[in-house]
Amino acid sequence: MTVLFEVYREFCFEAAHALYDPDHPTGGKYRNLHGHSFRVRVTLRGPRQDGDEWVMDLGKLGARLQQLRERLDHSFLNELEDLGKPTLENLCVYIWKDLEPSLPAIHEVGIFRDTCNEGCVLKKP
Ligand SMILES: Nc1nc2c(c(=O)[nH]1)N=C([C@H](O)[C@H](O)COP(=O)(O)OP(=O)(O)OP(=O)(O)O)CN2
Ligand SMILES: [Zn+2]
């Protein structure tokens, strides 16, 4: 029987952003520069690979995520190329697009701001 597993790895980063609302007379509640602590979870889905008995070596996944973390940590998200407006939703898409070419088993990207009790999850339908 082929069984499917979901394995995940997380990383955290700190970053700043400002969300300007063009429809609001003063730019809205989130217009000023401010920072958040983010936690990202990347989930892979698949069967155990022949020989290794794992979906993917989580050490290798961690090394790949570290490359992404180096770009995001202590960044000003508004200046990140290809992100667009720095919402949680756009960060999920950005992370997904960055990882998918090298991680075809990617199934879910979640980004959480634990101190604000909020987050966003993007998953394969
Ligand atoms: N769907 C989304 N909504 C909001 C996002 C987002 O990315 N996606 N982002 C923000 C801002 O980044 C905001 O700075 C979040 O901080 P928070 O303290 O949660 O702001 P709130 O107004 O929701 O909370 P308070 O309870 O008033 O502090 C906003 N929304
Ligand atoms: Zn914010």
Describe this entry's structure for a reader.
The chain is α+β, with helices and mostly antiparallel strands and 125 residues long. The chain has one domain: Tetrahydropterin Synthase, Chain A (2-Layer Sandwich). Helix content is 22%, strand content 34%. It contains 2 helices and 5 strands. A 5-stranded mixed beta sheet has the order 3-1-2-4-5. β4 and β5 form a beta hairpin. The structure holds the ligand Nc1nc2c(c(=O)[nH]1)N=C([C@H](O)[C@H](O)COP(=O)(O)OP(=O)(O)OP(=O)(O)O)CN2 and zinc ion (ZN). The site of the ligand Nc1nc2c(c(=O)[nH]1)N=C([C@H](O)[C@H](O)COP(=O)(O)OP(=O)(O)OP(=O)(O)O)CN2 has 9 residues, from α2. Zinc ion (ZN) binds next to β2. Catalyzes the conversion of 7,8-dihydroneopterin triphosphate (H2NTP) to 6-carboxy-5,6,7,8-tetrahydropterin (CPH4) and acetaldehyde.
Provide the descriptors you would attach to this structure in a database record.
125 residues, alpha+beta, Tetrahydropterin Synthase, Chain A, 5-stranded mixed sheet, 2 helices, 5 strands, 22% helix, elongated, binds the ligand Nc1nc2c(c(=O)[nH]1)N=C([C@H](O)[C@H](O)COP(=O)(O)OP(=O)(O)OP(=O)(O)O)CN2, binds zinc ion
